[in-house]
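User: Could you go from structure to sequence for me? I need the amino acid at each position, not a summary. Structure tokens:
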């Protein structure tokens, strides 16, 4: 685990060094859990957003997009349950004075039992080699069964405490499991209490009475309150979806793990409206579709898994996360939730306006049910960076750090490099850039040796390096180097467009979906 934490530290440092992510307000010593995207980070982030948006809105004729405002009428948050129920259970260690989420402490303890089982399996696999049968070993190993029994008992107790909202029991679990504060090492805990995560502010001048409003903690409600606007103006027939990408804000007390949990973040959400009674069928459908979307990026199918929720939100009748294997364990990157008709019913009740759909086939009015798919853009970004970051030994005692980003998402698609800064080579390189720049984000690079330039491009994940040399002036060919294999070949300048576009085109990726 320590080794994985080192890898994660390297990824965080790499993000800063190569212009992906900077701590916000850094010259003023930063602002906790807020980050800025640098010149390469924003390109990667925009490409992730484009991949999501086009897969949702372009490829589905029954899904459309909106962009709702961050500020909304405060009653919306009363109706949605956020004012009363948007809380985290927090606990303090009396010695370190540090505050933790009680649920996270317990989930990490559950993960420790999983790690113990994995260690036993790894040890046995090493011992028995090719003859190793994992299923058989798990069924017969006394140690594994002991760990599994403890894990299952803790899991059941934790799930019940969360569903019952039993704060005393959450504290008791922490005491019984002998969970210590990572900083003080003591088990001297306060009671668990709830803390609301919404940021509030005032709208209007204080003289004539201002209104307390909230920064939205999710983008979904902006879709729900626009349900009728979109349905009527777009003459949408159920089933149909509304997609949105936008900022959300949560006053996370325990914000950590770099951009994994931040106070200001971005979401990509799609709410899919269906007939009552058909929601679980559509829930299964979207689970499959969304997992496919992730796997199509080629980051390794084994790095994804589903995780069903133990505690369902007050509005849900089914919920699953798609998790990605980060250096700090499997973590959620996307949630698929069956939200029932809770949201639209609540807004109908609180606004006094009828929010219903007339179904011509059934000849009746009803409040639609909703399947939600929701991704944190920043988490998705982090999962891609973690999956792509690679340290390779090249040759005898040379190493390179390469970001094996899906080429379609890479910030820069190709770097054009004159071999030397003379003899008309820079001019020829610029000429090539001018033919490619309308379709691809390309970079000109003439500083340092070719080897150093290659390493620089590897570090930001550029799929192709194109070298212009003296032969280029004679026969119109260049050397193109492929990032992952480092193989080089001589190709005509005229072929560059088709080579780059085949590897980096969204349409090729969409065909896999």
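Assistant: Here is the amino acid at each position, in order:
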């Amino acid at each position: 685990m320590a080794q994985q934490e080192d890898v994660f530290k390297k990824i965080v440092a790499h993000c800063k060094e190569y212009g992906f992510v900077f701590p916000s307000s850094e010259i003023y010593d930063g602002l906790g859990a807020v980050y800025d995207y640098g010149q390469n980070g924003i390109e990667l982030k925009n490409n992730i957003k484009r991949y999501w948006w086009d897969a949702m809105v372009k490829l589905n004729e029954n899904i459309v997009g909106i962009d709702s405002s961050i500020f909304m009428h405060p009653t919306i948050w009363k109706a949605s349950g956020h004012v009363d129920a948007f809380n985290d259970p927090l606990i303090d260690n009396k010695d370190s004075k540090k505050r933790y989420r009680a649920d996270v402490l317990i989930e990490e303890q559950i993960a420790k039992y999983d790690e113990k089982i994995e260690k036993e399996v790894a040890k046995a696999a090493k011992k028995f080699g090719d003859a190793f049968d994992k299923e058989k070993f798990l069924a017969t190993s006394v140690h594994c069964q002991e760990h599994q029994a403890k894990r299952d008992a803790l899991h059941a107790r934790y799930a019940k405490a969360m569903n019952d909202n039993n704060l005393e029991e959450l504290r008791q679990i922490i005491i019984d499991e002998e969970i210590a504060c990572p900083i003080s090492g003591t088990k001297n805990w306060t009671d668990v209490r709830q803390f609301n995560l919404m940021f509030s502010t005032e709208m209007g001048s204080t003289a004539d009475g201002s209104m307390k409003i909230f920064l939205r903690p999710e983008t979904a409600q902006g879709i729900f309150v626009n349900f009728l606007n979109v349905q009527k103006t777009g003459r949408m027939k159920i089933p149909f979806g509304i997609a949105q990408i936008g900022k959300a804000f949560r006053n996370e007390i325990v914000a950590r793990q770099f951009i994994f949990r931040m106070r200001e973040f971005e979401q990509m959400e799609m709410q899919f409206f269906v007939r009552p009674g058909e929601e679980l069928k559509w829930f299964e459908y979207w689970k499959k579709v969304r997992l496919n979307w992730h796997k199509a990026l080629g980051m390794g199918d084994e790095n994804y898994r589903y995780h069903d929720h133990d505690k369902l939100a007050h509005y849900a009748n089914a919920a699953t996360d798609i998790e990605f294997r980060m250096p700090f364990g499997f973590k959620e990157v996307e949630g698929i939730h069956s939200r029932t008709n809770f949201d639209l019913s609540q807004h109908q009740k609180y606004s006094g306006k009828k929010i219903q759909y007339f179904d011509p086939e059934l000849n009746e009015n009803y409040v639609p049910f909703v399947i939600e798919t929701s991704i944190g853009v920043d988490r998705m970004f982090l999962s891609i960076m973690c999956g792509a970051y690679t340290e390779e030994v090249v040759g005898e005692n040379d190493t390179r750090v390469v970001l094996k980003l899906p080429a379609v998402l890479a910030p820069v698609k190709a770097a054009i490099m004159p071999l030397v800064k003379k003899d008309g080579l820079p001019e020829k390189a610029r000429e090539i850039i001018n033919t490619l720049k309308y379709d691809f984000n390309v970079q000109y690079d003439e500083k340092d040796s070719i080897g150093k330039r290659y390493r620089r491009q590897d570090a930001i994940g550029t799929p192709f390096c194109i070298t212009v040399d003296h032969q280029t002036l004679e026969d119109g060919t260049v050397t193109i180097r492929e990032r992952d294999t480092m193989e080089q070949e001589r190709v005509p300048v005229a072929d560059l467009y088709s080579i780059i576009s085949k590897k980096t085109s969204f349409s090729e990726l969409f065909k896999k979906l």
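One structural detail worth keeping in mind: The mean pLDDT is 92.
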